[in-house]
Amino acid sequence: MLLYLHGFRSSPQSLKSRLVQERMRDWGVGKYFACPMLNVSPAQAIAQAEAAIRGARAGGDAEIAIIGSSLGGFYARWLAERHDCRVVLLNPAIHPWTDLEKYLGEQPLYHGGGSVTVERHHLQELLDLRVDAISRPERYYLLATTGDEVLDYRDMIDACPGARLRLIEGSDHGISEFEDYVDDVLAFCGFGPGGKLPRAA
């Protein structure tokens, strides 16, 4: 399974999520794609991700890979350490318990209308998911943009020492040209035009 975790105030309708899903469909492996609509509560968002992983394994898909964007990248680091799986981080949040302080209260969603309410206890839930240091950095692929207007790419690099790194000059937080990198990201996760690729141990 490829589990895509979207960012704060985003959804499965994000451009990057849709690009990944469409490419996997084109390659005939769309059934392996999962992207839940994550709850605003970090603890519940992690529970949703864990449920998706359990469901995949119960269905016989033991190989799990995760793509996490922004806040989803923060969750993805925690899950990668817990499940020892490959993970791609797209401009990941590194210390969201401080980043989201200014977003306390009701916040509009980017897609489809509606809103979420960020509560102070959510910041503690984020702190509880902190990863102080990654292990087995060869499992990690970091895509970071120097033009990210929301997060500092240098924090991302510092948090993932030894990871495979693609540093994109300029661009933005949403990685507008992500379509150029989809195939490379999917190959790292174990998928290609012919379906599932052989995976190194």
Commentary on this structure:
The structure is a single chain. With 201 residues, the chain is an alpha/beta fold. It has a single domain (2-196), classed as Alpha/Beta hydrolase fold, catalytic domain (Rossmann fold, 3-Layer(aba) Sandwich), CATH 3.40.50. It has seven helices and ten strands. The strands form three sheets. A six-stranded parallel sheet has the order 2-1-3-4-7-8, with helices on both faces. The chain has a two-stranded antiparallel sheet with strand order 5-6. It has a two-stranded antiparallel ribbon with strand order 9-10. α1 links the parallel β1 (2-5) and β2 (33-34). The longest helix is centred in the first third of the chain and has 17 residues, at 42-58. The two termini are 16 Å apart.
